[in-house]
Structures are given as C-alpha cells and as structure tokens.
Amino acid sequence: MNRLVARLAVVVLLFAFAATSIAADRPNILLAISDDQSFAHTSVGGCQSVETPSFDRVAREGVLFTNGFCSSPGCSPSRASLLTGRYTWQLEQAGTHGSEFPKKFDVYPDLLEQAGYFVGFTGKGWGPGNWRAGGRTRNPAGSPFQSRTAAEVPASGIRRTDYAGNFEDFLAARAKDQPFCFWYGASEPHRVFEAGSGLRLGKRLEDVEVPSFLPDTPEIRSDILDYCVEIEYFDTHLGRMLRKLADIGELENTIVVVTSDNGMAFPRAKANCYEYGFHVPMAICWPKRVPGGRVADDLVSFVDLAPTFLEAAARTPTQSMVGRSLLPLLTSPRDEIVEVNRDCIFGARERHSCSRWSNRTYPQRAIRTQDYLLIHNYRPDRWPAGASQKYESNGQLGPPHGGYHDIDACPSLTFLIDQRDDDRLSKYFHWAVDKRPEWELFAIKTDPGCLTNLADNPAYASTKQQLADRLTVHLRETGDPRELDGGEIYETYRRYGKMRKFPQPAR
User: Fold this and answer.
1) Up-side HSE of residue 480: CA atoms within 13 Å toward CB?
2) Most buried residue, 22, 123, 209, 399, by CB count within 10 Å?
3) Which residue, among 425, 461, 497, has the nearest Cα to 97 in the 3D structure?
4) Which residues, given as ranges, of the chain have pLDDT below 50?
5) CA distances to 113, 127, 237 from 107, in Å
6) Which of 45, 106, 493 is nearest to 282 (CA)?
7) Cα–Cα distance between 495 and 360 in angstroms, integer?
C-alpha cells in the first residue's frame, strides 16, 4: 500500500510540474488591428503605394494569410465576432453596428484574464457602440491604456494617441513573468483623411493601383494615397511594439496577429460583402512555435482567432465558439493549402450607419470559396448605400444626392456624385449606390472587383445552387434569424450614435 501511495504521489507531482511548465510557457498575445484596410494594401502583398515593413516582418517571420476574412464589413460587428469566436448573427445586438454588446457573450480577453493573463488595450477596442448598456464594466477588449499622446502626427485626421507608448505602460504595469494579452486598435486608416496628405508627403500618383470598381483618375488616386499614409502610421506603431518586445526578450514567445477589422472606406468596399469589403490583410507570427517564411492560402476567418488564442494559452475554447483554432495550420511546415477542409468562409452585414428610413438595415449573407463569392441580399428593395436624400436639421428635405451614408463621406464619393452624368464615369456611381439583385455571384480570381454578376448566367447555375444550398444550411444550423424567422429582430436593435431622418419609401 505504501508503495502504491508513493507511486501515486510521484505521478501527481509530475503532472503538477508539467502543468506548471505549460503555464509558465504560455505565450503572450498581441493583436494589432487597423481600422478599414483591404487585403491588397501591404507592401509584402505587392502594393506599390504603401510601405508596411512591420506587417511584412510579421509575415516574413511567421505566416502570411492570403485569404484572411473578417466576419462583417463593418467595425463593431466584425470586432465582436473576433472577440467571441462567433458569427455576427449569433451575437444579437453585437451583430449589428453601433448597438450593444450583451455581457452573456464570453470574450477571449476576459477568459484569458481568468487564466492569469494581464489584459489591456489601447486606441479603439470594441466599438462603436455602448458596452455599458450590455451590462459590461469595461470595453470587451480589456482594460484601457490611453494616457500617452503623440507629440506630432504626419497628417491631420490621424488620432493623437501614442499607441506604442501606451503599450510600454501596459508592459510596465504587469506582474513579473505574467503572460499578457494586448489589443492594439489603431483608428487608422479610418476616415477622415487629410486631403492631399499623400502627395504632400512625397507619394506618387503613378504608384497607385486603382481597384476596378473605382474610376482611374487623379482625384481617386490621390484619395488612395491619403489612405496609404494612415496605413503606414498604423504600421509604424506596430514596429515600435515589436522592437520593444525584442528588447525585453519577449518577442520569441509572443503570438503577433496583424489584421484589419474590415475593408477600405471607399465606395463599394467597406460596408459591402464584396471582396474589398471583408477580405483583409492578415499575418501571424510566433517565433518560438511557428515556422516562418510561409504563405497560407487557406480560407480563415475572424471566428478562428479566439479559439486560437485560448488553445495556445492551454485553455479549452468555450462550446459557444464556432471558429476553429489555427494552431495546427500555424505550426505546420507546409505552404499554400495546409488544411483542405478550410474551403470556405462566411460573412454577414446588417446595419452600418443610420442610412435609411426608420434606421432600417441592409441585410446580406455571403459564402466565399477559393474561386467564388456568393452574396444573398435579403432586401433587394432597399438601397445598399442608403437613401439618396435625408431631412436636414431644419426639417427640410436635403439635396437629391446628400445621403448615401453607408459610404463614409470622402473625396471619392463626392467625385462619383459630381461625375454621375458623365458618360465615361457614371457607371462607377451606379455600381456604388444602385439597388442590387437578391443573389450575386462572382468569379473572384478573374473579377476581384466584383463587377460581373454571374448569378443569372446559365453556365453557372449549378455553382450558384450548390453555394446557395451550402450557405442556407450553414445559416440555419448556426441559428441565423434571417433564415429562421425573417430576422426582423435586427430592425429593433437600438443604435447609439448619430440618428438621421429619411423620407419613408413608397410602398
């Protein structure tokens, strides 16, 4: 009996030692998320008008994901999905823009904090919206570190938060040897940009590659250069953070994820389930565990990040999380397609800004494979960019094209409106604001701008049906109200933020 007790004691001690070793070896986590950046706009991705050495470093020392997707082409629902590992249609108010974030939905920063991590954020966490109304006591991204400000910024419109300085304060505040989880949320490259800042800072119009859904004119090229200035500012602070981690010997055991919450704030991009709306840059490194210098073409989604972080921290993802950990993909030595069952991702949008009568939504659901993008527009009777006219503060009806608030106000939108009667340029205006059919199908490899709708092309009937069936089944299995009961609940969720009045549409 004494021998048995002794053996059991040894086993218990071994397990305790192993558990302690795992806990002590748990990685730090740094999520760097820009605000409104499409997949194409990194220098490692071939963009000539932007320089992103810090993003490139993460890609070089880890894995560059060519098919990384956010869950929704708008800020707050996309961020909520990343935080919870759940699709936006599974998050009630948090699945739409500028509403609430119910406390009942677990977020990975809280779960890691319960496991002993030091948790914080700087800049933009979850938002816009009202997390207090959801019963929370802090932003879902963690405890705020916002006290430092930048002495100068390269262009007006750039937030004066010293993101990297706040990260240093965060590191100084944690206990010795405590693993950390930090959210670096830049407000760049969100609108508004300083008009002409790209040219003022030495960028060249000829370096810009204009997406096919925008006209190739000096005005559009200049607006894109201004956008690139803000991407570079985000990247600069990321570089400072990486250097700090290297200086203190923590970079080797830190998972660094660099991405964006949704696509570029230009007409027909952000707030649309098109390629430039929800296909985002993504690179991940973890020098201690992840073989570097790799490119993965697997389709991955924001819902996969929370399970990845928890598994890396030796925590079991909650049963409510629908995403799958990326650790097997990250630790594989392979390139290109690593996990063949990652053959599609799903996206969604409901309300973006207050852009229609009675704050109505524009509901979309999408499925994206390696070759195709299929979009279901549930309310094709509504205007995708919002109503063209609104009531002014004096109660008078505004100008005929003074609306379109689901497109961020910008020089590019103004240019499209001003040139709407030009025979050469009018198509770009109509692509941005006109009503769309219920179903849209695009061959992504030849049409990344999503301009040629194949949904009614007989040659693609089988492809459309297969994708539509797969999308519908997935939405029903995961409890999407739009498929289960029509989804009118989305029209009732309160919006916190600017409200506008629009003419009631004709019945």
Assistant:
1) 23
2) 123
3) 497
4) 1-23
5) 10, 14, 25
6) 45
7) 11
Q: Residue 415's closest CA among 404, 456, 491, 77?
A: 404
Q: Which residues contact 136 (CB under 8 A, 6 or more apart)?
A: 101, 103
Give phi and psi for 171, each to the nearest 5: -60, -40
Cβ count near 178 (within 10 Å): 12
Residue 324, token pair as written in the block: 């799958």
Q: Element (H or E) spanning 49, and its range?
A: none
pLDDT tens for 366-400 read 999 999 999 999 999 999 999 999 999 999 999 99
Q: Is the dihedral of CA 118, 122, 128, 132 positive or negative?
A: positive
Question: Contact 476/237 with Cβ under 8 angstroms?
Answer: no
Domain positions in the chain are 347-491
Locus of tokens 């009531």: 391
Rama region for 161: left / alpha / beta (φ>0; ψ in -120 to 50; rest)? beta
- How is the chain split among helix, strand and coil, in percent rounded to 5? 35, 15, 50
Angle in degrees, 0-180, between the axes of helices 218-247 and 163-173, rounded to the nearest 10: 20
Q: Output the six-digit token pair for 86.
A: 């759940």
Are 152 and 160 in contact, with CB atoms under 8 Å apart? no
Residue 304 CA, chain-centre distance (Å), reads 12
Q: Is the dihedral of CA 164, 166, 172, 176 positive or negative?
A: negative
Q: What are 444's two structure tokens?
A: 């992504």
Give the contacts of 264 (CB within 8 A, at least 6 positions apart). Answer: 36, 37, 38, 41, 189, 227, 270, 276
- Please give the backbone phi and psi of residue 465, each rounded to the nearest 5 degrees, phi first: -65, -40
Residue type, 36: D
Residue 44 sits at the vertex; the CA angle it makes with 40 and 49, to the nearest 5 degrees, is 60
DSSP H or E segment with residue 301: strand 300-301
Chain Cα centroid distance, residue 42: 15
Long-range pairs for 135-140: beta carbons < 8 A, 24 or more residues apart: 135/102, 135/103, 136/101, 136/103, 140/80, 140/83, 140/101, 140/107, 140/109, 140/110
| Residue found under tokens 């970079």 | 251
How big is the chain by its Cα radius of gyration, in Å? 23
Q: Are the C-beta atoms of residues 259 and 185 closer than 8 Å to each other?
A: no
Task: Give residue 24's pLDDT.
Answer: 53
Nearest alpha carbon to residue 43 among 263, 207, 210, 275: 207
Q: Produce one character per residue of 223-254: b if its CB has 16 or more CB atoms within 10 Å, e if not.
A: bbbbbbbbbbbbbbbbbbbbebbeeeebbebb
pLDDT of residue 507: 66
Phi, psi angle pair for 496, to nearest 5°: -105, 115
Helix (H) / strand (E) element for 3: namely helix 2-24
Residues 6+ apart with CB under 8 A from 365: 89, 273, 346, 347, 348, 375, 376, 378, 471, 475, 480, 482
